[in-house]
Amino acid sequence: VAAALIGTTLALTGCTAQQNGDAVTGIIPAPVEFELTGSGPFTLTEESRFVADGEAATVAETFAAQARIATGFDLPVVGGEAGASDLALAIDPAAGDDPEAYTLDSGADGVRIAAPAAPGLFRGTQTLRQLLPAEIERTDAARAPAEGWIVPAASVVDAPRFAYRGSMLDVARHFFPVEDVLDHIDRIALLKLNVLHLHLTDDQGWRLQIDAWPELTGIGASTSTGGDGGGFYSKADYARIVEYAAERFVNVVPEIDLPGHTNAALSAYPELNCDGVATKPYEGLEVGFSSLCASPERAVATDRFLADVLGEVAAMTPGPWLHVGGDESLATSEADYLDLVRRITAAGAATGKTVIGWHEMGASRELPEGTVGQYWDFVTPRDDAAELTNSFVEQGGSVILSPADVAYLDMKYPDDPDGPLGGKVGQLWADGPTTLEESYSWEPSAVVPGLAESDILGVEAPVWTETIATATDLEFMVFPRIAAIAEIGWSPAPAGGAARDEASFHARLASLGTHLDALGVAYRKVGGVPWA
Ligand code: TNX
């Protein structure tokens, strides 16, 4: 596989000038197999059609909608036989074993994408999106590429390494409007990520409407870190996010962070506090000072809160997962923490969802069967982080890896302190700044001793937003480092423990950069990448 992958990526950079005009072509994440073929490029024209039936037609329509805007062509989605100017999408059980697997063949006789299921067809369209000139991202149809809408003649066989490949957005410390979230979903889908984890609640704000507890988004949503104003998603807003994500085969994983990180809720409802007094709203940067009350005197209110909130959130969630937090409960005694985690995870499991918690929750030996642990310590585990993480597997669950020193995208880039961000954006606590190369050069199976490949559900890149208040700052921190995490989650591990090919990654990233430019993403042009 390694040899194939290296051949693949060299070919990907080599093919460009000759087969795709002046555009640089490269695919991120690197496909399992990529081969240039000899038939000559495909050109999308005014005559082109998408040929697809049933579910495949739905996937074709999502891509066609974007392509129509960029090209100004009609690009109808039709049934029947595909011709040489057409793009055919078909469900075919022979195209792979994984629901996200796909094959793509392009050339003078058309484009054919095949997959055993709709998710794979969609992933294939995102490969096609990257193979097309970057102008395919434009929303104004103002500029056709000089070379035409060319797709190089190629053959791709592809499937993901891990089932869960996530991006986490902290909308609690700063609120991000629906449109920003939709933009983010479209961009992570381009990288074949399939999870958007929304960190919806924290000390500084509660961001999701809960009918049974209206003050959560009354008092609880009025604040943010730094006093930058509040905000929340109504149920209709949230449904729009979920639907837009579903069209891109992205699962939204809602997180209600419990029992710590709860000041927004504690400020909205006195009865959730042990002393019966609502806390003051909080707009600072500290963590670990708030907690739900474990005392039996508050059990009725607390358990009703858990059941109502997790029940309503689960009802808004078509996907299988519900994240209940569990991190940094430094203001909760150990006995109270274990009691609350038992009640929280039981309430979560009672909704029918699979519960996810940050790795601290592994302290509990009473986790519902299958509970997933999200590891956030460093690439080399400290203290008891590895032990706590293994506890999920011992209880029948699996693990998502988000090592903070490589995958936390709110960590500064190395040259930021006096850079264009004026030092205000980004944190340093996770072993200092994080380079693109650090985000790229870690191996999931080597992080937590004791985890087998099959224990790893996947990887996720969180972005916490204490210091990130605008979509521009968010884009700057997330891109391009999220591309590294996406490749680690999707592409095969290099054989024999070899290092990933950084030169190939950089070259392909330069190509991705042209797409990000066309999308208007304010990504950071880190050094070492031959940006166009
Ligand atoms: C740690 S690690 C947190 C968040 C902060 C973040 C800042 C973890 C699960 N929680 O509460 O926002 O650091 O980088």
UniProtKB/TrEMBL annotation:
**Molecular function terms in GO for this entry?**
beta-N-acetylhexosaminidase activity
Keyword list, A-Z: Glycosidase, Hydrolase, Signal
- Glycoside hydrolase family 20 catalytic domain: from which residue to which, for each copy? 162-329, 342-492
Catalytic activity annotated for this protein? Answer: Hydrolysis of terminal non-reducing N-acetyl-D-hexosamine residues in N-acetyl-beta-D-hexosaminides
Can you cite an annotated GO cellular component?
A: membrane
Give the EC number(s) listed in the UniProt record: 3.2.1.52
Q: Which Pfam families match?
A: Glyco_hydro_20, Glyco_hydro_20b
Q: SUPFAM superfamilies, from UniProt?
A: (Trans)glycosidases, beta-N-acetylhexosaminidase-like domain
Q: Does the keyword ATP-binding apply?
A: no
Q: Which GO terms describe its biological process?
A: carbohydrate metabolic process; glycosaminoglycan metabolic process
What InterPro entries would the database entry show?
A: Beta_hexosaminidase_sua/sub, GH, Glyco_hydro_20_cat, Hex-like_dom2, HEX_bac_N
Active site per the UniProt annotation? 328
List, alphabetically, the Gene3D superfamilies matched. Answer: Chitobiase/beta-hexosaminidase domain 2-like, Glycosidases
Q: Which residues form the Beta-hexosaminidase bacterial type N-terminal domain?
A: 26-159
What family is it from? Answer: Belongs to the glycosyl hydrolase 20 family.
Task: Write the protein's name.
Answer: beta-N-acetylhexosaminidase
